[in-house]
Design goal:
Chain lengths: 114, 117
């Protein structure tokens, strides 16, 4: 079975631009979460979506937004990019949003903002 | 607030040595889950183990073992007879009901393990 997939793999953007990252969850998984991992640090929670609704949001500015589609895939959008947004963006899917469900991570999208 | 601390930022061992990665957590929840993930150079986080707060039994899976001690809020990970392929960054993570998003994970800073031949 296919795991979590993310696209693109790498992306280079300029400050002030906008970016869209995409994620397809494992088949049957209805919950998608997004994390930001700055180099040398642990992942930080950005959003969780379940059944197409936002169920949680981390401490990130409004420049960050996301949505989940009827097929449970998801997009993460970042507006007005800053140099500090350079990071590995990880998508994780799980069967549900109960705390017992483990999250399975995709390979990530490495975003570089210049 | 929840917090996970991995005090060892980097560990270097020679192949076949045993190595223990420490994880200390803070939470006010009585029900929570602890996880360990492995992140090889490719970047993808690989799930290793999940442990709930009511199950303090130690677990062994091949060369991997985990020691959960609620009394000290620790969930340590031991690799026996380490191999070069174990080289990676290892993350300890915590989820609990106080999270506004179900199974949102709070990660530690990670421990980079280097196993030399």
């Amino acid at each position: 079975d296919a795991g979590v997939t993310q696209s693109p793999t790498h992306l280079i953007k300029t400050r002030g631009q906008h970016v869209t990252l995409r994620c397809s969850p494992i088949s049957g998984h209805k919950s998608v979460s997004w994390y930001q991992q700055v180099l040398g640090q642990g992942p930080q929670f950005i959003f969780q979506y379940y059944e197409k609704e936002e169920r949680g949001r981390g401490n990130f500015p409004d420049r960050f937004s996301a949505r989940q589609f009827p097929n449970y895939s998801s997009e993460l959008n970042v507006n007005a990019l800053l140099l500090g947004d350079s990071a590995l963006y990880l998508c994780a899917s799980s069967l549900g949003r109960a705390q017992s469900y483990e999250q399975y991570f995709g390979p990530g999208t490495r975003l570089t903002v210049t | 607030a929840q917090k996970v601390t991995q005090a060892q930022t980097e560990i270097s061992v020679v192949e076949k040595e045993d190595v223990t990665l420490d994880c200390v957590y803070e939470t006010r929840d009585t029900t929570y889950y602890l996880f360990w993930y492995k992140q090889p150079p490719s970047g993808e986080l690989v799930f290793l183990i999940r442990r709930n707060s009511f199950d303090e039994q130690n677990e062994i899976s091949g060369r991997y073992s985990w020691n959960f001690q609620k009394s000290t809020s620790s969930f340590n990970f031991t690799i026996t007879a380490s191999q070069v392929v174990d080289s990676a960054v290892y993350f300890c993570a915590l989820s609990g009901p106080r999270n506004n998003a179900g199974n949102m994970l709070t990660f530690g800073g990670g421990t980079r393990l280097m196993v030399k031949p």
